[in-house]
Task: structure prediction
Amino acid sequence: MKMTKKANQLTETKRTTIAAYLFISPFFILFAIFGLFPMIFSFYLSFFRWDGLDPMTFNGLNNFRFIFSDPIFYSSIKNTFIIGLLGTLPQIIVSILIAFALNSALIRFRNTFRTLIFLPYITSIVAVAIIFGLVFNNQPFGFANYILSFFDAGPIRWSAEYWPVKFAIATMVFWRWVGYNTIIFLAGMQSISKELYEAAKIDGATIGQQLRLITLPMLKPIVMFVVFTSTIGSLQLFTEPLIFLGRGLREEGITVVAYLWRDAFVYNTFGTASAAAIVLFVIIITLTAINLALSNLIGRSKRKVS
Amino acid sequence: MSKLLKLTALMALAILFLAACNGGNGNDASEEGAEDPETTSETIGDGDVELVFWEFGNTGYDKLIEEYVADNPHISINLQNSDMNDVHDNLFTSVSTGSGAPDIAMVEEAQIERYRNAEDAFNNLYDLGAESVVDNYLDWVFQNGESADGSFLFGLPTDIGPTVMFYRTDVFEEAGFDSSPEAVSELVSTWEDFESVAHQIYDETGKLMADAGELVFNARRDQATQQYFNEDDELIIDDHPQIREAYDYVANLFDEGLVGDIPLWTPEWFAGMEDGTYATMLAPAWMQGQIKDNSPEEGVWSITTMPEGAGNWGGSYLTVPSESEHAEEAYQFIEWLTAPEQQLKAFLDYGLFPSSPQVYEMSEFMDYEDDYFGGIATAQVFSEAAQQVIPVYKGRLYYPVDEELKQAIDNISAGDDRDEEWEAALQRIERILQR
Result:
């Protein structure tokens, strides 16, 4: 009798704890298998030479030495940043403007437009590749070249020239993600109280002023979120360059993830691929830290002003 | 309510749009492997010994397997068909981790290089009795399935892709030539002829001789006796002149404006087959399917032999991974499946071009005529090409190296300097080898 009572008391306090752990365990178990282990293993692999078939041989820091002496690796980092900037900066500005327009009471068929703007995000990437392959076609009759011909500009080899490649890939990124970010901004805007706008209108504020003085400040946490995810997303850019350039992945358009993918799955040199992955990891951590520090700074200075 | 209707209509439109895009993609499936990513699995027969067989493409092996299990009731075969890249990636993972490999795996000719240094992971088919069937296959095909020293046999060859010259009869006639296969073969018997004919076609019709540099380079490359690596896997590309000659030949054609810049598998390439933008295509036997799909009119395209020889692009091998618990049975099955009689059936039903020269002598094969190509005995043209292919050692990094040269060719087609591009490609290749 006493025993069962004691046991019951124990479970009383522990039951909730155990239940809580049980509820969160699926994520952590899956994360450990599919996230944590591969990460640790790739740290380990970066010090070895391995082609996936033969036994691994210890290689010290040679993998890192190799990638840091490889001009294509530097190109890939540069490309990643350039395409990231070209693709995400205009995208954030445009998606805020579109979201603002969709949120305004003046526009008709709002739901239709909301669905339309989100369509690119759910479009199959293969379809995207085909359409952009036609738009940014190297031939004079390619869509982009055809439009350029009206301005007496000669045909551009979109898949091979330094800036055109980056522009084409950035356009794909822009097109694919602008709707996604618009929806996120729209959700943020809908949580802003209508009274603020009404009060501003009574005071005679223009639409520009409303956007600048009400929407943007109230939207700051959402902007932070979008900047964070876009930064990480653009650093991990892979599918767009691969489908646009093919497995050859020319130096003009290769990104860091495409570089390490090619090392691993085309050249079967998993050591250098892992080393590149670790360098990317460090870059992402650093940038996230800078992002965090900046957002803290902005948050603090604003609070002081107000 | 009306909103809901509009939304439904919109979604329906979107789905139609996406479906249309996917339909268009069917064309370049052989390049991107994007078509039909599903895996199908089917067990044929009810014997106790079950063999798992990974294949890709449209082989029609299910019918042949039914015949086999009828004669061998103790065997059942689980045939799993997936996308080509998936089969190879899955096999690579299984081989790398040592678990999950099937009893029989189909490996494509280009991909077999990836598994070269994984002899442990495959059964040496010579140990299972392959010595007795060596004569069933063309020498060069068989050698490609062997290790460099010839002591280890990875797989038995199924089909091959001998390259020939597809040409537009209308363009040749317009340029004032006799367009029969015999006459064209005679007319374009050397690479110098190819160039001079290209000049005349350009002068008379304003049309290009070939689509792009890639296939012309491949054709010349495949006729080289040495290519990128020697049998010790050392890079020899700059130690002999043959690859550079192929490269310069293509560069000259570009300089003279006789070859286009129309990359394979692009919409303009497919459209060019119908429009006659280019007069010839130096391509393997299986390319006839693409040409027929894109240029449906009969008698426009024809086939003849390539100048100075032939090459090969494509084809597959059947391997028995060492994980298999039924290696004996698996070997007996693949020996049967790749025997001349079965290869003939695979050719007649599914167009898999046989790797066995004995099939070339069979009357059903020799009589095979194709109205599309003006009623000529196409199988004979291809078999003639197949027997001219020069065996060459490729090496594990053959395709990455090839890719870099293709990039250089692409750049010279845009007007870059050929020597600079050659050097740049060699440097990139060096870096791949250093990894």
